[in-house]
User: Fold these one by one.
Assistant:
Number 1:
Amino acid sequence: MPNRLFRKKNISDALKESEGFNGGLKRTLSATNLVMLGIGAIVGTGIFVITGQAAADYAGPSLTISFLISALCCVLAGLCYAEFASIIPVSGSVYSYSYATTGEFLAWFIGWDLVLEYLFACSSVAVGWSGYMLNMLHGWGIDIPSHIASSTLVYDDDGWAFSGSIINFPAVFIVGTVTAFLIGGVRQSALVNNIMVAIKVGVILLFIGFGISYIDVSNWSPYIPENVNGEFGHYGWSGILRGAAVVFFAYLGFDALSTTAQETRNPQKDMPRGILISLIICAVLYVSVTAVLTGIVNYTELNVDAPIAMAVDRAGEGLSWLSPFIKLGAIAGLTSVILVMMLGQSRIYYAISSDGLLPKILSKVNKRGAPYSATIFASIVTGLIAGLFPLDILSELVSIGTLMAFTIVCLSILVLRKTQPDLPRPFRTPFVPFVPLLGAAICLMQMAALPWNTWLRLIGWTAVGFIIYFLYGIKHSNLNKRGN
């Protein structure tokens, strides 16, 4: 049994799949497409919501430093992702990397963890999209009945309870709409994403460009607010560090790029560029927006759901024309995040199914090169979760799942450098072992800071995954069949 659990997939077999011998996916994505997908996945609720709340509660104007610290953390993990994507340019992301380095059982574990990340990321952003859309419709005088516009379940100190709502219909609707585009193929999906990214980045640049003239520099003083009563994380340098931990999650999503390696024209060169360039662009946008936001409105007043919209209103008539565009940009931003996360989720199902660990029907590909069965399955599960569960529970599970994936990628780089030092590496992570070890350490510290209830849910999710693997996956694994 132990030998079966730790069988490794030959990298040459994975490379054959990437060349199209067994893959079925079409190579259509360019470096520009990858950068746009990265921006599409990263720029969402983070820039429209988290900036104000983190400035008000933790760091004040010095949240700009927090964003730079968290960007550095993501770059460390991104460098490790880039090396793996250049070595094993197939769909499946960390799952495929682990299969080639640490064996089948750990690959299944991280694959199941990736399902958690993408499934709940899609669901949570869909719930957020629903909130923005309901707000915009209300402004137009259109109100959707509450019993079909909020989550069925709620969670508080007394545990789970029914909210009285049947389902969050707008959240289910956007998942179904995005699925229709994804089934049309990755080229069509990339085009839709490009349009959404252009809208939201355009709105952000408008806010930065026109908002600069409304900055009151007195709002930046003190730039690092004095720590309150020695409490860790409440302003001061400890507040900057706590703020970095909070806004770290604003960068999550770039790892979805690695799931499209098998659909990239030149993955060895373009995948590292796509990951790193999109991270840098998003870091610049986040820092710029934070500087303008805290310059227009004092940081003590920014703990609201829509801080950018508040800043526009505070600026007065000179920026009032920008208010509807802010809402449009937020909706476009969330739509692109859902699209990229759904794209990544379907590719994870596809990769695991191709290896026999999930039913083969999930690796079916249509004429346009889209894994349609995996995409439809992903949409059904995502729609149900988005319609039933509240946002806060979903977002915590996204965080712990993503940090687990980052940790495994960083550590797997060390394993592969040790076990296969002569393997061709078109892109090499610099300063090994310092970069991967630091990246893994930061991710583990972030995980340790999450609530115990989130860990319990992760344990429960993992237990379900182990049951599926030992009842189905290990018996139907392609490596097991070849061994027999």
Note: The CA atoms of residues 161 and 461 lie 21 Å apart.
Number 2:
Amino acid sequence: MTDNKELPKNADSTKPVEVSFYEKHKKIYVRDVKGWWTSWRWALVWLTQILFYGAPWLQWNDRQAVLFHLVERKFYLFGLVLWPQDVFYLAVLLIISAYALFLFTAVAGRLFCGYACPQTVYSEIFMWVEARIEGDRSSRMKLDKAPMTASKFSLKLLKHLIWIAISLWTGFTLVAYFTPTQELLAALPFGFSGWEIFWTLFYAGFCYMQAGFLREQVCKYMCPYARFQGVMFDPDTLVITYDPERGEPRGAKRKGADAANLGDCVDCGLCVAVCPTGIDIRKGIQYECIGCGACIDACDPVMDKIGKPRGLIRYTTENALEKHFSSKDVISHIARPRIILYSVILVLICIATAWSIATRIPLMVDVIRDRSTLAGRWTGWGEYFRMASCRGLQR
């Protein structure tokens, strides 16, 4: 294809220029960062994993507290027992999740992606293991460029063994939500059924692949949410933003140099080094940004060192940047019509669902075939057509 924008100066504009639509993948080496947003992200990592790994071990009235028992066709949620005819509540749960996602996204952007998405959570866990074994960002880069030695092989092997162990335990935990945990433990190591082996290895394999290797590629290319999130944003949605009016033009603040014409950004590149998707937030809002806030935690200490106020990169709205809103103005713009509509619908659905579950009367009907044999001769309608016996069990 021909693209004059790609031509160098004084080049022949009639000569075709080949431009590739596919960018070669470059491994992202994420730098460790500490700060308020990072602490919140790790708090959510701990919370979600304690719930996920711990729920199958909870007991309630001598049975597993949370169990979706497919063999018995019963779903146990602590004291609540749901039957196959209650599948309606699954649809309601999905509707509630969708509206909650719409609401949170319209208010504060990709909070789910940056803090609670399984892809983000397990990528954080795997990267933490990688950093503990292979070292910091520069050490990992040097290790990957170095030739294969016994030391490098042992470090890589140890890392992957731990990744595989975490993945297998994650797959086992998933299956434990559908088969009682005690039965799975009793079946170890070779007593699993075919389906239990399949789902354990299937989920473990995807966890190992996506958190260990794909990472940001899942967010950038595979996740549909990254594509349609734009329709949920508006100029009053809170997102991670860089203030170009304050930061530009960029330049290093050196002693004795004239920095009067420079902005607050010292062009240190830390905001790029700590980004899990490898983007430069200074280029504006991008769909690859998952809203984790790591760039804020990296930028604020730099502002402290050069004696500038924090907030060059901050959580704010497009309108706030353009119109110089105060914090109170930003908060006041949250209660806009679409937010009120999402909130009202979500609250009404939750109230209706809670009332329906609290007042439901479980009913189980069994249709039993008549065991007697029909006579070969005509015995009349009443005897020829027998009614199936039904019994209702109320609990």
Note: Strands lie at 66-69, 74-77, 80-82, 239-242, 313-316, 363-368, 389-394.
Number 3:
Amino acid sequence: MEPFDLSIYKDKIDSVKHRYEKAKIYYYNQKGKMDQLKEQKFTLEQLLQRTLDNIDVLEKVRMLLQKVSEYAREQSRAQIESLVTNCLQYIFDSNIEFKIEISEVRGKPEAEFYVVSNFDGTVIKTKPQEARGGGVIDIISLAIRIAMLECSNLDIKGPIILDEPAKHVSDDYITQVAEFLKQVTYMFNRQVIMVTHNRHLSEMADKWYRVELVDGISIVTGNDESL
């Protein structure tokens, strides 16, 4: 029987120990990387949650601002409709109303203007330019400018300056236009200064000046005693 050679097993045992140590080093290296990845995952999950929370808050803020904007827009629409309607009814008759329809087009609000008339129960809805000639457009334009000035959040002081505010309005309604402008001065505490070729409208003002060109010279007359 041959003698047992321990050196052969010693070499194998050393080889196994060497592979074990190598595997252990590799294991701890990989474990360190995994722990690092877990920490990164935890940090990213926290960041993701904060981001989702921020998105939720921003969405709520967006919805709130949209509601506020819609409310403010609705309030402005109602105020403008009321003022323009009162103006039309005062100057023309009581069966005419001014309406504003607001819709979303490509994410932006757009407004369409309409004149609604009621003739013996028949409701007629038309665009301002199609309603009873240019006089209605003149009055709507005049009333909208005044309404926008008074309904805006801008603190705009000073007089209202108008250029031919009733150019296409017939003389049958000029008295009502003048009375409306006077009511505007009382209601909003603003002076109205206008330029007009309509003699009837100008002479209804508190002070009026007429400029006539005679032989190349401007002659100024009026009801101001200082002239």
Note: The domain at 72-222 is CATH 3.40.50.300 (Rossmann fold).
Number 4:
Amino acid sequence: MISSEKEAMILRYFHAERWKVGTIARQLNVHHSVVRRVLGLQGNVMSAQPLRAQMIDRYLPFVLKTLKEYPTLRATRLYEMVRQRGFAGSQSHFRRVIRRHRPARRVEAYLRLRMLPGEYAQCDWGSFGKLTIGRAKRDLSGFVMVLANCRDIYLRFFLNMRMENFQRGHLGAFARWGGCPRVVMYDNLRSAVLERHGDIVRFNPALIDLAKHYHFEPRPCDPFRGNQKGRVERAVRYIRDSFFAAREFKDLDDLNRQAEDWCNGLASERRWVEDPSLTVGEAFERERPSLLALPENPYPVIEREEVSAGKTPYIRFDKNDYSIPHTHVGRTLTVLAELDSLRIVDGGQVLAVHPRSYDKGQQIEVPTHIEALIQEKRKARTLSGTDRLTRAVPSAHWLLAQAAERGDNLGGIVSQLLDFLDRYGATELDAAVAEAIERGVPHPNAVRLALERRREEQARPLPVVLMPSHIRSHDVAVRPADLKVYDQLTRGEDDDE
């Protein structure tokens, strides 16, 4: 880009002084294409001095006819077409010519719409990258709903765009506003529109149930007409720039707390477009009485999924395994999940209640489920102990593998390592096992020596040893029996005389 002063100089030298394009370019230290561009923008190049005939002139009628029929045809394709017809010029020169002759794209004009208070809200999802939870990488999605009149924003983040989270977003927005708009506008996202043929729309049944409960009308925008919900589109862009950019947070709950504070603070304190003397929060207080009243009971939102239990007492749900009673393996069960917990049911019977995990590959267990299986199958005790050991101390897997190659008793090794695990903890045992493997002595005695050496170096007290239950039972106080009865039995008749 050049300054307006230099553009004026180019025009003066060309029209008043009759300088050529090359002379102007050399004297002003600009490229000749810049000079031609300035003169071409004014539409005076041809009138100022005649241009010599160019190689492309004979092909221009064909090019202009093709561009009229196909306005968006790429210059590279046009270049190949004229080359086949005998054009021998360079592609760069041809591109410059096409740029001047290509018809300008018509810019569509839009009316500024004014929404009635309490009448419309606009809703959409926004993608905000990934969130790492343990070993899992989850999609971080932002649910955004905007009251069209006052521009008040509701924002909440979820780990996916499932229909249940879409419904939870509606419930959160209605609860924030203390009411419900009469019309909620969507684009053609799957959570709202399942199928569309022209003006015939098939809505998602779950959205229709939500609309029946809160008495609002779901209304989709026309295809490729994002301007019909431009206020939520701008809100998503505003959230990216004003809230999410360079934002630090510990977890999803912390991010949602910060989002709520931002909606109540900075987003609510910005100037209202319709009346700059008011803030968005003040405009919302005026709009609040126009909203529909909420029903007494909120809409129940529960994720429901049918799962199959295999031969082990676990079911897989959302990348994690949850324990069930072993009496229900091999069946099709139902998971009823909420944001922080889930229930596993068989018909009307609740089999288990677990905290929900968003990690990956975790085993969430109820201890009684596993203990009941162990009691029924005693052979499972060793396998259960090995599984517990390798999950808590990953390096124990290699120690057991080397011990197996040497022909050692794996059951005894697992029992001793589990005892060390209870006494010293997983961190210390993992370091001691790694040291024993490095020394080439995969034996519990080497692990015990490493544990004791580390304990003495850290000046920690001796671990408390809990005696087994069958030994602790020997310490039960026993009341001695009265032996006078036995003395009476051993006395004879002579003794009585």
Note: The first strand starts at residue 120 and ends at 133.
